[in-house]
Specification:
- By secondary structure, this protein is of the alpha+beta class.
- It has one domain: Regulatory factor, effector binding domain (Multidrug-efflux Transporter 1 Regulator Bmrr, Chain A), CATH 3.20.80.10.
- 30% of the residues lie in helices and 29% in strands.
- The protein contains 5 helices and 9 strands.
- Strands 1, 2, 3, 4, 5, 6, 7, 8 and 9 form a 9-stranded antiparallel β-sheet that branches.
- Helix 2 crosses helix 4.
- The radius of gyration is 17 Å and the shape is globular.
- The N and C termini lie far apart (43 Å).
- Pfam families: GyrI-like.
Amino acid sequence: MKADLKKEIATYTARRGEFSVVTVPALQFLMVDGHGDPNTSTAYQDALSSLYPVAYTLKFLSKGELGRDYTVMPLEGLWWSTDMAAFTTDRDKSRWSWTMMVMVPEWITGEHLGAAVETVARKGGAPALDAVRLETFDEGLCVQTLHVGSYDDEAPVLEEMHDRFIPSHGLRMTGKHHEIYLSDARRTAADRLRTILRQPVARTDA
């Protein structure tokens, strides 16, 4: 049976127009770091061109060698800037830093990653392959919502989350802005893109 972790992990579900406080479990990801406008940055395109081949190679390795099949998870990104207004009001993408990620099951090991990287390297076309790493990421307490629409229309939702919902619920922001891309932007109209917007938080009285 093929595992669909997106359906099994509750925090991969969010509601449009509703902010939820959730506790995200520690999960394991393939990651690549970079900086710059994702629409124009060569580094960003190189990251995606390396993450996806490794993610799919690991899936087939798991199915063939371990007898454990699973659905490849959606692309995710951690985004940050020295000035958070770059996300909410200015939207100056040239000032963004990012970590692009694909979650993999807990039974995938560093040894499996090494084998997958060797396979992808033989095929070529993965320019950031040396930058792909396997890391456990533990976000813990977060606020999240589902945004439907263009990525460029996220600003009002983020402003509402950051400036009103979070402080009004006795919370403060603690980590990097997190996006989970439930839609394939190459095949989905901009106004129908579904993206989970997530912000790690802590309680102000903690």
